[in-house]
TrEMBL record:
It comes from Pseudomonas umsongensis. This is tRNA (Adenine-N(1))-methyltransferase. SUPFAM superfamilies: S-adenosyl-L-methionine-dependent methyltransferases (SSF53335). Pfam families: TrmK (PF04816). InterPro entries: SAM-dependent_MTases_sf, TrmK.
Amino acid sequence: MRLERVAAHVPAGARLADIGSDHGYLPVALMRRGAISAAVAGEVALTPFRSAERTVRESGQHARISVRLANGLAAIEPEDDITAISLCGMGGETIRDILDSGKARLSGQERLILQPNGGEQPLRLWLMENGYRILCEEVLRENRFYYEIIVAERAGPMVYSAQELYFGPLQMQARSPVFLAKWQRMLRVKHKTLGHFARARQAVPEEKMQDITRQARWITELLA
Ligand SMILES: C[S@@+](CC[C@H](N)C(=O)[O-])C[C@H]1O[C@@H](n2cnc3c(N)ncnc32)[C@H](O)[C@@H]1O
């Protein structure tokens, strides 16, 4: 379901770069449906790279899906004429670092379809600081885990508030049941952490304590 939801955000006919493709399921599924016109599956690690190669070969799509062993956006060349980039199933900080160190390879015309596993706030901060507008956001729950999808395009200077960066500007407005359920769970986690801090034998850094307290307050205000 997670990758199906990601797939739904890839524009029809896109030339897709799926970075950190692992098994290569996303580009292969989209190509099979005729939903994209070309794809690059990028992988930094050898075992998943081979797995992607196998999936592509067995699908018979190797003429239109190129599997490349490369670090982050180094998998993309200008001739690929990429129109959409997916980065899924990695921590938000990792996705941010891949985008940041590969900035020179972004034309600014690509749609970014990002599915971070945690670390959404630093990722949204990077998007804002680099002039990306968040077009669409989704929270979904699968196997007891909550996943977020963030779709963005470069649009010039953007300003999001600290809370918008933390919760997601569009999700804060939409307040879907799954979004609220995620933050109810997160509030329980924050309270538990603060309880541990209160019972800790060693002093917890004041800054850390204040940070978690502030997060718990924001979540309480969101859910009020
Ligand atoms: C957990 S898998 C997610 C696979 C797939 N994208 C998905 O969502 O199901 C993360 C993959 O990202 C790859 N990866 C991590 N850092 C990377 C980087 N800098 N460049 C390319 N691939 C990377 C890992 O090797 C791993 O195969």
